[in-house]
Amino acid sequence: MKFADRADAGRVLARALRRFEWTDPLVLGLARGGVPVAHEVALALGAELDVAVARKIGAPGRPEFGVGAVTADGEPIFDARTLAYLGVSVADLAGVVEEERREARRRLAVYRAGRPVLAGRDVLVVDDGLATGVTARAALREARQGDPRRLVLAVPVGAAEAVRDLSAVADLVVCPRERIDFRSVGRFYRRFDQTTDAEVLALLEQHRHH
């Protein structure tokens, strides 16, 4: 069963999330691909929508292979097992880390009108899928610093191992389609184009006037 696109995935996820009671919910879409999913969730829950930005740190020569992640502020997170397997050290990645941190800062500057208040609220970090979970882990760690009442990771589809790992980081992980045979997020979507800055801004704008 593939999702038609991210909006479809968001509606499936929203149905799973409506079973819970929420306190002043704030939905943070992981920019960029998580935002169209988060948009549907925020509409269904009558929640505020904002963005979270965490950038994947790719392996040398294989940028699509995530070995870590970094947010605009804070230390990068690395997957020690993957680094050991590839024979790569943290020092080898210093240049990539700085580059991705700059891009994270650029995106926040573009997307955010101000910083949303997280304290005392149910905060839902939403992405379009969970493969290794390293970017979600970085986003959750940053959101935790805002002292939310409850910190939730919500994804329409995810690798079973990553869902299990992140259950130790978030207070709750909601994933309607957990898969052992994961491989990549894109294979669970019929349409999986890159989400653009313009699309993210349009969705955020829609909520600011909702």
TrEMBL record:
<protein>
    <submittedName>
        <fullName>Phosphoribosyltransferase family protein</fullName>
    </submittedName>
</protein>
<dbReference type="GO" id="GO:0016757">
    <property type="term" value="F:glycosyltransferase activity"/>
</dbReference>
<dbReference type="InterPro" id="IPR000836">
    <property type="entry name" value="PRTase_dom"/>
</dbReference>
<feature type="domain" description="Phosphoribosyltransferase">
    <location>
        <begin position="9"/>
        <end position="168"/>
    </location>
</feature>
<keyword id="KW-0808">Transferase</keyword>
<keyword id="KW-0328">Glycosyltransferase</keyword>
<dbReference type="InterPro" id="IPR029057">
    <property type="entry name" value="PRTase-like"/>
</dbReference>
<dbReference type="Pfam" id="PF00156">
    <property type="entry name" value="Pribosyltran"/>
</dbReference>
